[in-house]
Structure prediction request, 79 residues.
Amino acid sequence: MLAMNVELHLCDVDGDLVATAKDLAALNSNAFTFTALAGSTSEALIKAAMPQSAYVAVKNYDEAVALVINNKADALISD
Prediction:
């Protein structure tokens, strides 16, 4: 398992903070669906640290944001 010191800030589409997590293990659940750019370091992070979550690869940020807005993904992971 990938070990990192992180503090994740989850924001809604307006940028308002809705949740925080102290480690990625808190998000490693099939209750969550994440999206990220295909081939990105964010995709690698999702696959390595949150393998139990669902993942939708996208070609660009517009696609990713649309997935979140349309409730097809819970969060866009990006660095």
In short: The helical segments are 41-49, 61-69. The first helix runs from residue 41 to 49. Strands lie at 8-11, 17-21, 33-37, 54-58, 75-76.
